[in-house]
Specification:
The protein is mainly alpha-helical and 474 residues long. Helices cover 63% and strands 4% of the residues.
């Protein structure tokens, strides 16, 4: 009843005042008993009881120890129920917000030590993660423009020792397993604006430095391959970590590279959507290809394709756009004329409105192109590792680029420009042979496709035959 709550409130207030004036800590016992009573009560859905607990637990528990923590984070039936989840989260959030930084860090260290000693099976991972991360927003360490907060710096100091880093990764993996189980085995590795807390913890660890990032990646990779939940969740998580810290993660390990490649193949659209710190550089460099298609510009792009091929592969469609625009009929200046082949059909005669005739030059897409640009694009494609360009590339724009070369070759052949296109053709053929030998299945699928916007009745393999291109070594 309300009278019982009033009497209890008076008792708790006396305990708090006694702790302030006397050197005792009865509030720890009071907080523990109140929380235990709430979790075991059959009336836990009561709004009055919930409100009472939300108010008093944080006040009583300001200087609590592991006795209280064991109750607070204990895995029980009720804290898994929908009705209890929000209330329990609010209790932890208020408790953390009212704790001093010293006390807060002490609880963090206790959590990590419990995991190190393998005593965390009775605790709820979601609650432990909630506490560890409740004083830090994800923008603090994911947004490079945000100045580091004191809380963030404190987190880093807590996690820096190797054994604590390992414990934090273990907690994140426990949270990932629980997250996967609660989703009924359907993992959603979107990791967009609503990043789960276990993923945030991994990203936090990755933000410390390269050494901690590689330690975390090594632990995750050691869990793979797997037919259990790890195989469905961890590759996407590792890919998200790489997307966030591409310049810090070491890619020297073949197993790690394989995991990242396969993860991007499994979710190509998500990989295309995720923004990385290197994306803007790739977009800018590739967009400038038409202005400076040789030397320094090309080398800058090739450096990225070799060091970070999975990121560069996301921008194949920009290469396709640059090439497509280059072959358009347009006015060109004196500088652009250099190295540009301007083919045309034989002159035609057309009757004018006065009964006479005029000479007509037929120009359309592909009758003119810049050889250096088209050769440069092929060099960039050839610089990708085969296991990336001929796998992930097939889902991220490679076919668009290859189809443009076929169109150009066919058109140049029709207008007698075989010599104009000879070097491009030879370089293009060598890349197709690598495609054929590296990924026969995907290549065969592409060969049977039709270029609907060009010659819809002809398959790719037929158009290659017309250009005298064979994919098999003689």
């Amino acid at each position: 009843t309300s009278q019982n709550f009033e009497r209890l409130e008076i008792i708790l207030q006396n305990i708090v005042e006694a702790n302030q004036h006397e050197n005792c800590n009865n509030s720890v016992e009071a907080a523990t008993r109140l929380l235990n009573a709430y979790f075991t009560s059959s009336d836990y859905k009561s709004s009055i009881l919930s409100k009472f607990v939300l108010i008093w637990i944080p006040i009583l528990a300001k200087e609590c120890d592991e006795t209280f923590w064991r109750v607070l984070f204990h895995r029980n039936v009720k804290n898994q129920l929908v009705d209890m989840v929000d209330i329990h989260d609010m209790i932890i959030a208020r408790y953390a917000s009212l704790s001093t930084m010293k006390h807060f860090v002490a609880c963090q260290l206790w959590i990590l030590n419990e995991i190190k000693e393998s005593r965390h099976s009775n605790f709820c991972p979601k609650l432990l993660l909630r506490f560890l991360l409740c004083k830090i927003g994800q923008c603090t360490f994911l947004d490079i423009n945000s100045p580091p907060s004191d809380e963030y710096k404190s987190y880093l100091e807590v996690l820096k020792p190797k054994d604590r880093t390992e414990s934090a990764v273990e907690l994140a993996l426990c949270g990932a397993q629980e997250w996967f189980t609660n989703s009924n085995g359907e993992s959603n590795n979107d990791f967009g604006s609503n990043i789960p807390q276990w993923m945030l913890l991994l990203l936090l660890i990755g933000s410390i430095d390269k050494k901690h990032l590689d330690l975390m990646a090594g632990i995750i990779v050691s869990k793979l391959p797997s037919n259990a939940w790890e195989g469905k969740v961890l590759p996407g998580a590792l890919l998200k970590v790489y997307a966030t810290y591409p310049m810090s993660m070491s890619l020297s390990g073949g197993k790690l590279r394989g995991v990242l490649v396969n993860a991007s193949l499994e979710t190509p659209q998500k990989w295309l959507d995720w923004e990385t710190p290197l994306d803007e550089q790739c977009r800018s460099s590739l967009s400038l290809m038409s202005i400076n298609s040789v030397s320094g510009q090309q080398q800058m792009i090739i450096d990225v394709t070799k060091k970070h091929p999975l990121i560069a592969i996301k921008h194949l469609k920009i290469i396709a756009d640059v090439l497509s625009n280059d072959a358009e009929v347009r006015q060109i200046n004196d500088v652009e004329v250099r190295g540009r082949h301007c083919g045309k059909y034989e002159l035609l005669f057309a009757q004018n409105e006065f009964g006479g005739s005029v000479q007509v030059k037929v120009l359309h897409w592909g009758t003119t192109f810049t050889e250096a640009l088209w050769l440069s694009a092929l060099d960039i494609i050839a610089s990708f590792p085969d296991e990336v360009i001929f796998t992930c590339g097939c889902k991220m724009g490679l076919h668009l680029v290859l189809n443009l070369y076929i169109k150009l070759l066919v058109i140049q052949g029709d207008i007698g420009g075989a010599q104009n296109i000879k070097r491009v053709r030879n370089r293009f053929e060598s890349i197709l042979k690598k495609f054929y030998s590296s990924n026969r299945v995907s290549c065969d699928t592409w060969l049977q496709e039709s270029l609907l916007d060009f010659q819809k009745d002809c398959k790719v393999i037929d158009l290659l035959d017309s250009c005298d291109i064979s994919l098999q070594e003689v």
